[in-house]
Design brief:
Layout: H1 3-22, H2 25-37, E1 42-45, H3 47-53, E2 60-65, H4 69-79, E3 82-84, E4 92-97, E5 100-106, E6 111-112, E7 119-120, H5 127-132, E8 142-145, E9 151-154, H6 159-165, E10 167-168, H7 174-180, H8 183-195, E11 198-199, H9 201-210, H10 219-230, H11 235-245, H12 247-251, H13 254-257, H14 271-284, H15 292-300, H16 305-308, E12 310-311, E13 317-318, H17 322-336, H18 341-353, H19 367-377, H20 381-390, H21 397-420, H22 432-439, H23 445-461, H24 466-483
Parallel strand pairs: 2-5, 10-11
Antiparallel strand pairs: 1-2, 1-8, 3-4, 4-5, 6-7, 8-9, 12-13
Amino acid sequence: MSDEERSARRTRLLASAASTLASFTDVLTPLAARFADRGHELYLVGGSVRDAVLGRLAGDLDFTTDARPPVIAEILAEWGDAVWDTGIDFGTVSAAKGDATVEITTFRSDIYDQQSRNPVVTFGDTLEGDLIRRDFRMNAMAVKLLADGGQEFCDPLDGMTDVLIGVVDTPAAPESSFNDDPLRMLRGVRFVSQLGFRLADRVLDATREMADQIERITAERVRVELDKTIGGEHPLEAIDLLVETGLADRVIPEIPGMKLTIDEHHQHKDVYQHSLTVLAQAIDLETGDPDLVLRWAALLHDIGKPATRRHEEGGGVSFHHHEVVGAKMVRKRLRKLKYPNAVVDDVSQLVFLHLRFHGYGDGKWTDSAVRRYVTDAGPLLDRLHKLVRADCTTRNKRRARRLQETYDHLEERIAVIKEAEDLDRVRPDLDGNAIMELLGLSPGPVVGQAWKYLKELRLDVGPMSRDDAEAALLAWWEQQRDGD
């Protein structure tokens, strides 16, 4: 890009930012006036300015000011619908008004202890001092908000140039920045995913050299960055960066571990590349916001292959029960990363079920098998459909088409059976009370055994009349008593 082209694009981006910020006038101008009335300056800052420049600003707005936290709290209490000061020790007070959420922080000049990522917070007196402490130059731009609605663009570190060329670079030496806060390495990768930028060469080199420092960061903070990374618009490039830099070896080593394993069909360079392809195809099947559960399941669905690889006679390779092993590995890793139990359960269950469809073969599953497929998937069925379709990555176009047509047939079978019975809530035809009354039982484990028998029978034969269900239960009960 020539200097003339860069200058023209800079002008366009600034105009775009001004247009974007005009839609937030009802928030920006009243706040700026209130701070001016108290003798203070107010700046939109950081990611909010970057996103305004890129035309992607949402309703969460970040500000910085020379006002101290008690003054910020007073102003926001007068202005906002709700105020919370959980970050006031770090100089931050937040508020919500209408659809907007604002976070306002006093100028800071942090000192890090080089052991954790927790800074010793000291308040600063200048905008420049506040900006230079930030993670990346593209996040060190600000817009001064004037009481009359005017705006002044402030870019002392030339973050706009980084935005223009699409690069993620640090204000000072990256080694110093990452020593202060190693989480910035993961944040850099995350911005590659979210913005489609690239890491500056010196940032990439420093990340490679200092990847082990990420172990200073808590699992919870790592998890947040990983979710933002896989949920971005360019997650494949970012995952490659995690692996290339060695960060993945420290935070989720099962991903680079797949690079060592050739898949059984020899259709891909390795299982790692196959998994990236599945992730890309799963993303193509999304119909709304990024589905993190689906994306994690797509990326991790084959992580059990390295542990189950076997060389067969004749030169073949097998991975028997890799879905079982993989589900256990997913559960262990996600728990270590402090994911919520619901996410752990959902991702591991999808990994466990992703091969089930291949038993469908030529479409001769019984109705019972179809019911069990739907029941085992439960509320994950739609995601399972997408994961299985995304996993059809063979280069043989005829085989790929046949697999998709076979899955079409399975979905048609599911739809037909759903029309005839409630597949979303398969339960026995008799509840616990009816079981106890019919068999003359008190509450206890035998009632649970009878309930389970009826549930299995329901899956096998479908809905039964009450008379047929009672007759079947009585026959089962006689067998149990004869066995005793």
